[in-house]
Amino acid sequence: MITNSAVSNIFVVTTYVVLFVISISTMFVHSLYQSKEYFPEERYALMQIRDSVSSTLDLHGNWTGPPCNKNSSQWTGIVCSNGHVIGLVLEGIQLTGSLPPAFLQNLTFLSNLSFRNNSIYGPLPNLSNLVHLESVLFSYNRFTGSIPSDYVELPNLKQLELQQNYLDGEIPPFDQPKLTVFNVSYNQLQGFIPNTDVLQMFSESSYDHNSNLCGIPLEPCPVPPPSPPVNPPQSKKRKLPTWIIVLIAVVATLIPFMIMFVFFYCYKKAQEEETPKERPAGNDDSPGWTDKKMQHSVSTEDPERRVDLQFFDKNIPVFDLDDLLRASANVLGKGNFGTTYKANLESGTVVAVKRVKYMNNLSKKEFLQQMQLLGKMRHENLVQIISFYYSKEEKLIVYEFVPDGSLFELLHVYDKVAKKCLSSDIFYLLVLENRGVGRIPLNWAARLSIIKDIAKGMAFLHQSLPSHKVPHANLKSSNVLIHRDRQSYHSKLTNYGFLPLLPSRKSSEKLAVGWSPEFCKRKKLTHKADVYCFGIILLEVITGKIPGETSPAGNDEKEDDLSDWVRMVVNNDWSTDILDVEILASREGHNEMLKLTDIALQCTDVAPEKRPKMSEVLRTIEEIDRTNHEND
Ligand SMILES: Nc1ncnc2c1ncn2[C@@H]1O[C@H](COP(=O)(O)OP(=O)(O)OP(=O)(O)O)[C@@H](O)[C@H]1O
Q1: Best CATH choice for the domain 37-214 from the list 3.80.10.10, 3.40.50.10300, 3.40.50.2020, 3.40.50.620
Q2: Nearest CA to ligand 1 atom 9
Q3: Cα dihedral: 347, 385, 509, 411 (round 10)
Q4: Which fold has domain 441-632?
Q5: Which atom of ligand 1 has the smallest separation from the CA of 474?
Q6: Where is the segment annotated Disordered (predicted)?
Q7: pTM beyond cutoff 0.90
């Protein structure tokens, strides 16, 4: 028999259990909701601005992943609360471009919005429905058009700064009670200042320097003339004296010529600076192998301590040391292991000469052996060593000259001439995208071809020098040289085989392998250290980022953050976020790019034994290249 009290006990217990289950599941659902880290529509809104303006900040690199993690954000200029974006503050970063229409509509929780002190042009953005907005700061830009009338409907607006733009039209009747900061000075606004309590509260400085504003607190508006208005453009025309019209026409005609003149002046100046002058005697910049001191040492030195130029290729017109000493030369660049010069021999032959550093204590035998080994190698993707020179104090390596610069320049350097002109305000307006004026984007086909050539060169080196610990050891984008054949790009590797020539760990750490995890941890170096460097180059080509400069939080650690960053983004399934904008825009080949990213991540595995061999890497890349061609 079940008593009444037992029934009521069962009822009470059941009620508690049900309540407990409900509260647990509510907490669970709530925590699920809380763990949703961001709202995709807000991210999409920010992506729109990221992809339509350029700036001095690498927004493309920094704004990746989710914008909000509850109350914090890794994104520059973004403030979050409860997973929502509540602040968008991008001030003084040379944001250039026009804002996409209505891009802010999905940032419904936005309360602070500032683009102060940039170069944004076009109409002011639409802010309708952004009811939480308290502060809107668009001053010191190049906005044009009128102030949207729906700004008067932002109920919580406290601050509106629009000064120093090119706004025209009339001021809408702002009357929000909370509006305490208001400035529209230095624009081209006209008409009456609306007679609202709020607008009349501000002083003259809020309205100063507009074309034709009147009413309190400025001068009273003129009484309109009694007669019916005549056609305004005609009346204006009639008022202008002929000489002013002529003057305007002349100035208008001259302006384009002046712009061209300034540009060509800049261009010539930049070219003059870039083309190093022929070496005057005793000039500090002159290549050392032509120094009088060296000429003297070459001719009088103990023959045991020097070797004359040794040649490896019978097809190259042979020159002797005297020819090299007489050659006109200019600096191509300075690397970690010395300076490289372009030498124009009197015979017309052009070569690149590298004066190598850190090898002073190297014996003649060691240098000779390594050079003879490297000099005999022939491959279309290796820069050929033509000859070399050894003396105790001076070591030169003469390379074939490769005409189109390095991969580093191709990927990262602004158009050099245009860059010199960037300081001028005229050209400032012409900034096209993050990497500067005049840069020709490097398309995916070119990148893939360059990568394939690097892999071929590396696979050949690894096959030819099996007993070398790390056959290249210095693979980085400045050591990948480019030569163009019409539209196609090819690459050759240079500065290989230095590791056995370096005397100490300190000098070896300047090689590209110095960045590999095994070098940093003082573990044994193998061919796989080269594979690591190859992976880093691959990431550099895919992302367009300079290794060592990727840290989103802006920390200065020397560690390779590029592969860590890519790994993080890819693991979170935001894979296309890593792609360089220049290839992202094409919308083709994304699959191949991501396959290559996968290879790059295998190559940069911390554990050398998990990295693939160069020959395997080459095979996969050739396969990807074939698919790419089939899809063309
Ligand atoms: N054989 C060459 N032909 C044409 N240009 C070359 C050649 N070798 C080097 N250069 C140019 O000279 C620049 C400087 O080269 P250099 O080898 O001195 O420095 P690096 O590439 O930074 O290498 P490292 O740090 O290993 O010394 C390169 O970036 C490239 O533009």
Answers
A1: 3.80.10.10
A2: 340
A3: 70
A4: Transferase(Phosphotransferase); domain 1 (1.10.510)
A5: 26
A6: 274-302
A7: no
